[in-house]
Fold these 2 entries.
Entry 1:
Amino acid sequence: MGLEIQKKNNGALRSKWWYGRFAVNGKSSFVNLGIEIKGRVPKSLKRRGDDAFEHSRMKAHIKLEELLAESNSRKSAEHHLEKLYELKGGEHLTEVPVSEIGAQWLLIPTRRERTASWEKTQGSTLKAFSSYIQTNHSAAQYISQVTPQMARGWLHSLEVKRYAPATYNDKLHLLKGFFERIGHESGVVRNPFAGCQTKIKKTMHRQPFSQDELTAILKHCDAISRPLVLTAMCTAMRRGDCCKLKWESVDLQGGFISVKTSKTGEMAEIPLFPRLRDELEHLPRVSEYVFPEAEEMYRTNIHGLSWRFKQALKDAEIKDTVVDRKDSRRRANVKDFHSLRTTWITMALSAGVPMELVRRVTGHSTVDVVLKHYFRPGREAFRTALETAMPKMLTGGGQEEKKAPQDALLWLVEHKDELQKEEFVAKVAKIAEGMALRPCSGQAA
């Protein structure tokens, strides 16, 4: 055990840092102590330097003793853990190098299949954490040597870079989950991310498009994005689900799309509005996917899809698509592809479509999610919906009281004997036409 400094052949310092060399259970370690060399450096460490040099030497010596004590304590805990693991499972612990965190994460089984974009994003976070540990704590060669202090230091580096709370939390959950899943088999005595608090998120809700905006957007979409946008307009499906929509999920004759949502795994049943059905009927079936070009781009270049939609918004002169955030350096998108989903839900609920039917289309498991994140009516739409639904005595009675389609159908059934056959059929046809046009028709010309 001892302190060392690194010099060049001419005697000049190669590094300004003190280094320490020590051994634990026969394993030798040579580490940067993080203590800067100060003052006049003597020719040999056996000689005394000036006061500044000796002060830095003392700090380095104390740091080296702390590392040695910590290593001995951790080694003892690892030894006991390994013996316990062998007694219970009859297997040896497998040390996982910090440099192989990303590769080990890919071996962990998941409930859902990882997409290429997901692997790329998560892999980037794991690589960044691995690089941080190797750069700032080179003595920690294995994940069992990562301490809570190191974990907090990495999280602090995220704060310095001003990551948005949602991104910060995603990275924290990923690393915390990694150590939970693989830790016990790799000698981790304590999850270094245990106890680390998530950030409070300020949700920036997406805003719905108006009908005129939908018409303009569809008009300026290119050949790849146009059918996706129309599908999202008429079904409230997420972009990924639109891109990966298969012909086996489309029942043109029955007029329904039945698909399991990628995010929640819930089954969504979506009626095919006439305009979308006409669009799908004229598409060639050259693949198992309804939109093969979009599916390939979603897998290989998802940013290409984002760029195409942003370009359509720009060409359609859609305003206020992004807003500033106080808790992040990045601006927040409030009108993007996902806003098409918000638009559908807002229009449907404002038109009086029952919540259970909306959830059946969107695949949401709770009412709270729908109301909190997706129902965003503008003031005029909100006023119109309330005035239509509330009694005339409260709204002023200036307009004729309107019946919801369901109520109108029930009224017809009750009074069918009082109407001529032709009149009855005409009224049913009119109500059916109104129900078909309500959520989607008129959104795009």
Entry 2:
Amino acid sequence: MWRSNNGLIPKNLDLLLVQPSLDFTKDLNALMARKVEEDIIISNCPPPGIGYLLSITRQNNIKAKFIDMVTSKVHAEELYHYINISKPTIVGFGALTIQIKHAGTLAQEIKKRFPDTLVCAGGMHPTAMPKETLEEFPALDFVVSGEGELVLLKIFEHLDKKLPLSTIPGVATRDKPEPGGQQINDLDNLPFPAWDEMDLNLFHGIFPHRTKLELPMWTSRGCPFPCTFCARPLGRDRVNRSVESVISEIERNIEEFGCESIAFIDETFIVNKKWSSELFRTMIKRGLNKKINWSCETHVNITSPELFELMKESGCYYVFFGLENADDSILRDSGKMSKTATVKNAVKWAKDAGVVVAGSFIIGLPGETDETVMHSIKLAQELGLYSVTFPIAVPFPGTYLRQQALNGEHGLRLLTDDWNDYDKQHPGVMESDTMSIGRRLELQKIAYELNPKNKIEDYIRKLSRRQRAEAVVCL
């Protein structure tokens, strides 16, 4: 929320939460570029982590507000003006790796202008690299690692009692750069995200829901799969909410906010088939399938025709799969634990049930060659997906893939630690002895030109004789 409901900036805040941006126009254009169709904007949902924090603070009489600098189109000077009037005790930045330098720059200016204000960062990057984040960005007083709901209450308790923050599990300081921390085991005790603290008109949705309002939901935290390219910030021990808790939140979202679509954003949805089936049957029994539609991301290994039929009946319209590659050995070595045959089955079952299917293939995982990339491109064509993306492999902090690149395994090497470049689409930060970054980008361009609307044969006809021969060999 940019201002209070009366249009005024609140004063004497305890906490100001900020999604950082140094150029909201550029960031908005990046969102627009992800559109699959002209009338749909995707990958723009209200952040549930912030929603939980706002709910926790309200429940405990902590005055907190949230500014998303991209969706609210906030310049840095406007942020400083807001801080000058609201005088928050703590300014907390949420930061993915690609956002962390923005947070660091803003933090530096905040500390310069308001030296008594505590500034911290949480989210994916600080969770993966707490010590390094503090070293790289000296304006940050501390970072929060992992789940922040209970940590946040401890921070204000320690400030009130004038106790050092370094003794709090989940907080990293320069006195204690390793934060420790623990997973929240009873998610049902958390209050539902405080969506009323955000302007929901600014968030168009993460999936192509085609309704008035989509809201994201977590039904669990943690992911059991060992994919080498994923940091798993909430660990591999998956913790589920109860079915009744999830149903209650869906009903709350409908009744209080007019929600018409739910995006289940668990790291891997429907891992527990028994729990998932109970959820879907309860949604049908309560008639929620007639009030909302829903979407999710999941793993091809945990699907079945019967499950997709039940999902469709309960309101599922869209599923996204991380397909990653068409080569079984690359899938195995990347920890994906799936095979091409499994991929084909999962997509077929979903489509047979009437569910829209989208997916992604990563270009440049260990063992990748021109031939394997072209096989992935061909498989994407064969699957007939609603949309498909071809991200470049990025060795994000906290991933095994990054460790492999640092060790030079599989001929991998990092090109930069400029976090602004750690984007899955461009410009690329890793290459190998067998595939340069330039070649990765060339193959990515080919992949997007061929999918989802162009045919491979049409593309080949447009190539030069030499290029055509190379492509045919790969295919």
